[in-house]
Design brief:
It is elongated, with a radius of gyration of 32 Å. It contains two helices and ten strands. 6% of the residues lie in helices and 19% in strands. By secondary structure, it is mostly beta strands.
Length: 228
């Protein structure tokens, strides 16, 4: 496993107050401007007795005469602080979702979404959802326990193909490889597939969050093929 794995957290959030109704939207105290009452000057309006004989053309009157009369009214809708969905949601009710923990959504925790913890989205532990961590910081890298060597294909041997296949995979919290994909190919006709077959049989001690909780961790693996 390369030692220069990207750092940073992953995972998501959760929350809710165990209410099944529509989730309200988040609201904060607003500081928007207010509309202003615009009144025309009486001197520019025609006399009431002449109203039937005067054709009013807005473009021929001074600007103030065609202003709208509007009541002064705050435009900001937020008058209180309340948690809720950052986008969408409803403007009524008290529901923040069927989950629990004080956040918003159907997960558990103080975050927003379907995950667990203080983050956003699916996953756990914090950050923005997806549920997959990168080794570094408070997340330890998985440790290889069992390794299976890949096989050379007859065609690759006959063409004496040598080099490395770079794979990216997720080591699950159970210590198993998943979501394997090729980052750098060596031989699409055989050796790439043999590398994947071998890594699928590897077993790991899973990465851990804060040295305690097993978590899914994204890693890169380099498989070397050489003819001796």
């Amino acid at each position: 496993l390369p030692s220069s794995l990207p750092k940073g957290g992953g995972g998501g959030g959760g929350g809710g107050n165990r209410q099944p109704g529509p989730i309200r939207h988040a609201e904060s105290i607003g500081k928007d401007a207010i509309t202003l009452r615009i009144a025309p000057k009486p001197s520019v309006l025609p006399a009431l007795k002449d109203i039937e004989s005067v054709e009013l053309k807005p473009d021929s009157l001074p600007h103030a005469a065609v202003g709208l009369l509007l009541d002064a009214k705050p435009l900001a809708s937020g008058t209180t602080e309340q948690i809720g969905l950052p986008e969408g949601g409803v403007g009524f009710g008290t529901s923040t979702g069927p989950g629990s923990g004080g956040g918003v959504g159907d997960g558990v925790g103080t975050g927003i979404g379907s995950g667990q913890g203080p983050g956003f989205g699916p996953g756990s532990g914090g950050g923005t959802g997806g549920g997959v961590y990168h080794a570094g910081g408070s997340v330890t890298a998985p440790r290889l326990l069992m390794q299976v060597q890949p096989m050379y294909t007859p065609e690759a041997l006959s063409h004496r193909i040598q080099g490395s296949v770079v794979l990216e995979l997720v080591v699950t919290r159970e210590g198993r490889p998943s979501a394997i994909r090729v980052l750098r190919s060596l031989d699409r006709r055989g050796l790439d597939e043999e590398a994947i077959k071998a890594v699928q049989q590897w077993r790991f001690a899973p990465g851990r969050l804060a040295d305690t909780t097993p978590v899914d961790v994204l890693v890169s693996v380099i498989i070397d093929f050489s003819i001796r």
